[in-house]
Every structure is written in structure tokens, then in C-alpha cells.
Amino acid sequence: QAPIKATCEEDMSCKTGFPEDVHSAVVSRSVHGGQPLLNVRFRSCDGNKKIHFGSSEPEDFRVGEDGVVYAERSFQLSAEPTEFVVSAQDKETQQEWQMRVKLTPEPAFTGASEKDQRKIEDIIFPWQQYKHSSPLKRQKRDWVIPPINLPENSKGPFPQELVRVRKSDRDKSLSLRYSVTGPGADQPPTGIFIINPISGQLSVTKPLDREQIASFHLRAHAVDVNGNQVENPIDIVINVIDMNDNRPEFLHQVWNGTVPEGSKPGTYVMTVTAIDADDPNAQNGMLRYRILSQAPSSPSPNMFTINNETGDIITVAAGLDREKVQQYTLIIQATDMEGNPTYGLSNTATAVIAVTDVNDNPPEFTAMTFYGEVPENRVDVIVANLTVTDKDQPHTPAWNAMYRMTGGDPTGRFTILTDPNSNDGLVTVVKPIDFETNRLFVLTVAAENQVPLAKGIQHPPQSTATVSITVIDVNESPYFVPNPKLVRQEEGLLAGSMLATFTAQDPDRYMQQTSLRYSKVSDPANWLKIDPVNGQITTTAVLDRESIYVQNNMYNATFLASDNGIPPMSGTGTLQIYLLDINDNAPQVHPKEATTCETLQPNAINITAVDPDIDPNAGPFAFELPDTPASIKRNWTIVRISGDHAQLSLRIRFLEAGIYDVPIVITDSGNPHASSTSLLKVKVCQCDINGDCTDVDRIVGAGLGTGAIIAILLCIIILLILVLMFVVWMKRRDKERQAKQLLIDPEDDVRDNILKYDEEGGGEEDQ
């Protein structure tokens, strides 16, 4: 329905105001928010007046500054005419005019004879009077033409006349030519709108689609026969009125949501969304949602509801229980025309709502008492399996069980682990158990979930049970007491002496066993033996603290005690002998060899006394030279410089180069004292200015005597003889090979000749 045209009729006797008291208009039955309905006609004798339009029903209708009446909201017109008042007020003088508007709904549009139903309106170019001698002059003013509303999907016939553009009736002397420009006319998409250049009749050539182009902005032009513009162009706006030609489409055909079990009514679940390509501000694009079906229908067929405008799905009933119903399937329908079941188009989608688990079921033991047994002294073994049932979803924190002991294990010999697959509690021994001390354990255990129970659950948060564990007696290994056993003994104890008694005990008091047998496991120096019956240890050699098998005065030996149980068991014990030192070793000189120059200066030799014994049987030491032979004290002198060190030097000015054995008497501080005479081999050599021996003397000084040098020379001579003999043998072998080749005639070589025999008959075959 095109809005009614507004004109401004001005003449010399002009009266400002509405041209009529009541204005009637026929509009579409379905009114959409923002839709232009009509244009009121207001006569203004003064073009400079600033008029403000108003409506008596502002919540339903709004009047623009250009006089176009718009619908403020979407609604359906009733069969009775709808009336309201339009007012016009002068902004300067505050003068006000009123006109009653009556809207009548049009019959349903069929598109068959639209030309008969629509009155073709005229759009008149603003008339402008040419200058003349009259003192009154027409003022040129721009007109705003109300939009032309054209329904989409019209069935024709085409071309369909819309409006006629013509010049002012006041100036009929001119012959004009009309044209139209803009998208839809001479711009893409071209050819939708055409105009008769003579009559100015504007027509549409094909059905329009609002979802492609919602409005067209055209401009009508008028020129004279010479092509001169005689009128200002008129802007024509053609609004494509939406028709309900598109069904709602859901963004997803299947929607997935979740809701915790036990949720209260009003809990938000999910939102489904559908879109409609029709005008969202009109009823054609206004969607309403509803739930068509729910499966399953327990515990109530209406567990959920949907907000018909937003698509939000919420719960409306209590009783969601995952253990009974794990999933609900809803069929959701979206209908346009604000859900009108008669005129609206619909579409459906599926909403799948999974009921998620909460901890509303505690674990429960399958028995009040569980039984198990464990051999004594065994650890890291499972002695009992505790089984529970839990109706919550498996392998979730609401299903996973945690076990703890509440009594019966004060020493912490057991722990309970959870099997992640079966959720069973595995009672495990973590500390050895002695049958002779504890034969039976009665444990109290509790099971609960990893997360606390949901609020409002009337079950106890945990379940309790009893575990009875029997300890089985087994043959245990005997053990030595004490272990290790320490014995303090002076070294030098003779072989065959009784050292100690080292016995073991058998912890099995309730088994019939005879006695223990002893044997030796480790005795590095082979000094000891043990009696197999009574465990008495005697020596088989002299104990020596200075032995290489003694570390830090301690000698260790290991012994074995075995029983005759089934199966036989054995245990080891260590005997530690702490050897006390006695003065059984005399001190010795170190080093055994030294070098000095044949002159008096420098000729000091530093020597050290070493003693395998320890304090007080070692240093400080006394150093002295023997009285015999007399040449020793005549040629040498010795001076102690500390408790362990002394200095030997020449007494005379010159001593011929050579090797001299100097005896030195060293005495320790033990009680009684121990002394020895050690020979110090001194090499006297010729020295250079730096006090170093010459090369020859260095060889001697390096420890090579005359005999050693002779031996080295003999080895060298023997090696040279062997090399010479090998060379001679090789040459002799070559000569023999050459002589043998000369005895053979090359022509007589049988390998190169065929021998012929003048014989007949079958004789022997010669090869």
C-alpha cells in the first residue's frame, strides 16, 4: 500500500492547516515496527514555518518531520478501524492544528489484480513560477516524496505501474521528457524500474526480493524537448515490503547441552538459535520457540521449557537422576510470524541434553567383613581386596573411592591402595610382621569418594567394614647377637688360641627344630676357624696388625648359622677383631739409596725412619752410626733433625767416587725399644758446578752397578749375533735355490713336452 501523497497547495488566498479534519487510509493488516503507513497533508502558506508533528498514540505511531506516519511496533490491525490524532505545532508561535486519522485494514493480498486494488498516485514536481511583473513571487522549495512501499514476490502482471511523475498542473504549456536513474534503473541491477518518457509512468518489470535488495533509491528527471532541465530532480524511494517467504533455519540441526542431575527448577541448560531471512523488525522475521516433544518422558513429560523469544532452555521440574535417565532428546520448533500457527512458517531441530553426574551416591562395601592372610616378614604383598559399589558414573571423582584405616593398625604396617580400573581397595603390607609377636590383625576401614557428596543427599558420606588378616608362620633365618660382634685383641696371638664365641639365635619358637650349625663364610687372611656346634672361634695363624688384610686396626670375618627347618634357613654374622699394636717391628731407613758429591760441600743426605708400628711403638727415633767398621764414623756423620728425620753427610773433605754401604742404627720409642741396622747405599760421584752428577755417574747414581751394566752389554751382543746369523742363513738359502735351477734343462721340462712311444697294441697308459 503506497502512502497517501502530501501536497502543498499555495495560492494567493492560502490558509495554513490540515486540509481535512479526518483522514482515512487503507493499510496492510500486518503492521511492522518502522513501517511507513501514510503521509498527512498539511497546508503551509509560509514556506519558512517550522512545524513539529505529534501523535496521540506515541507508543503505536510516530510522525516524522516530513509528515510521514510510521508504526512504532509490530501488530495486527483489527477489523474495526484504528483511530488516532495527528497534531502539527508551529515551533515559533506554538500554534497547533489537529487531524484525526482512521486506518482500515486492506483485504488479503493475492497479487492477481493488484492494479485494480492500488490507486496509482501522482508525484508532482515542485511548481516554480517564472519571474513576471507581479510583486508576488513563487519561492522555490525542495519536496521530500514519501517512500513507495512495494511488496516482494508480486505475481504481476508485469510491467506493473507504480506511480506517475508529471509536471505541475500550473504550467501545462511545456512538453517534457521523463527519465529515471539509480540502482535498479540504469545502474545494476538494471531494468527493474522503467519510466514512460512521455507520460512519466514509473513501472516495475519483475518481482522484487527484499532479502536481496530491501530498498531502491531512484531519481526522476524532467527535461524539455531540447534537453534542458526545467524541473529539479525528484528523489523516489521504493521500499520492498517483506513477505513471509522464508522459513526459520536453525544454526545447527542437532544441539548438545548438559545439565547436572538433581538440578533445581529454573536451571539454565542451553540456548538454541534459529534465523529467518525475512525482515527481523517485521512479524515475518520474528521467531518464537517451543518444545514439541521430550524423550523419554520420565519422571515427567515436561522436564524442560524454552523461552519462546530467546531460545533458552531451562528446567521446570525436579527429579533429574543420571542413574535413571542419562539423556533427554527434545524436538524444538521455531515459527515466524511471532509463532502464529496459522500464518507462520516453522522448522524443527533436535536438542540432546546429557544429564551429568554429581556425587549423590556414596561408595558402599559389598561385605561387612573381608578376610586375608600374609606370611610373616613379607612386604609389598596384597593381602585382601575390598570391593565397593557406587552408582555414580564410573571413573569420575564422584565414583573413584578412597580408602583409609580407622583402627587396628597402630604401627602402620598396612596401607590401602585403590585399583583405578575396578575401584577396589588393595590392602597391602608395608612393614614386616612377626608371627611370634602378632598372629592376627583386625582392621576397620572406611571408603569415601574423591569429592564430597552433593548437598541435600541423605546418605552417610562414607561406608565402613572390617578386615581380618591372619599371619602365617614361616621358617625364619637365625640371627647372630650381637651383629657385628667386636673383639679387642693384641696382635701376635699364636695359632690355636681361643679367640671368642660367636653364636646365633633362631626366632622360630613354635617350630620343631634341633640345633644350629656354624661355618665360615669369609676369612681373608685365613686366621680363624669356628666350631660347627658351639660357635667357638680359635686362631689358625698369628694375628698381625700390620697385615694387608687389616684396615684401621680392624680385621673382619663373616660366619654362617644354618637351621634344619623346611626349607632350611641361614643367617650371617660379622666378627670384628680390633688388633692392639705391640712393638714387633723395628724401624727402617728410607730411602734405601742416596747420592752425594765427592766433595764436602754440598753433601747432605736427608733420610727418614719408617716403622709399621703405631704410637707409642714408633717415633721419635734415635739415629746413630755403628762403631765398626771404623771407616764409617771416619768418613760420615749423622744428625737427627726431627723425630722421624735425620741428615747424613761427609765428615772428610773428599771421598773418591763410588758406591758405599753406610750402616745406620735406628731405635724406636717402644717399651722395650726395638732397633735395627739399615744399610743406606750412597753413590758418591763427581758433580758439576750445580751439584749434579755427570752422565756416567748419573747411570751409576740411577741404581745401575757394574754387574748390571755388564749384563746389559751381554744382552746387546747376543741380540746382534742372532741378527747376523739370520742374515747369513737367508743368503745361503738364496744360493741353494739358484744352484738347483741350473741343473734343470728348460727343454726337458715335462710340463712343456709330449713324450711319444713307438708301441702298438693296448699297453699301459703312460702319463
Automatic annotation (TrEMBL):
PANTHER family the UniProt entry points to: CADHERIN-2, CADHERIN-23
Gene Ontology MF annotations: beta-catenin binding; cadherin binding; calcium ion binding
Keyword Signal belongs to the record: yes
Native organism taxonomy: Eukaryota, Metazoa, Chordata, Craniata, Vertebrata
InterPro entries per record: Cadherin, Cadherin-like_dom, Cadherin-like_sf, Cadherin_CS, Cadherin_pro_dom
The protein's name: Cadherin-2
Keywords assigned: Calcium, Cell adhesion, Cell junction, Cell membrane, Glycoprotein, Membrane, Metal-binding, Phosphoprotein, Repeat, Signal, Transmembrane, Transmembrane helix
Domain Cadherin: 142-250, 251-365, 366-480, 481-589, 588-694
Residue intervals passing through the bilayer: 708-730
Pfam family, one: Cadherin
Localization, UniProt: Cell junction, Adherens junction; Cell junction, Desmosome; Cell membrane, Sarcolemma; Cell membrane
One of the GO BP terms on file: cell-cell junction assembly
GO-annotated cellular components: adherens junction; apical part of cell; catenin complex; cell surface; cytoplasm; desmosome; intercalated disc; lamellipodium
Gene3D superfamilies recorded: Cadherins
Organism encoding this protein: Furnarius figulus
Membrane topology term: Single-pass type I membrane protein
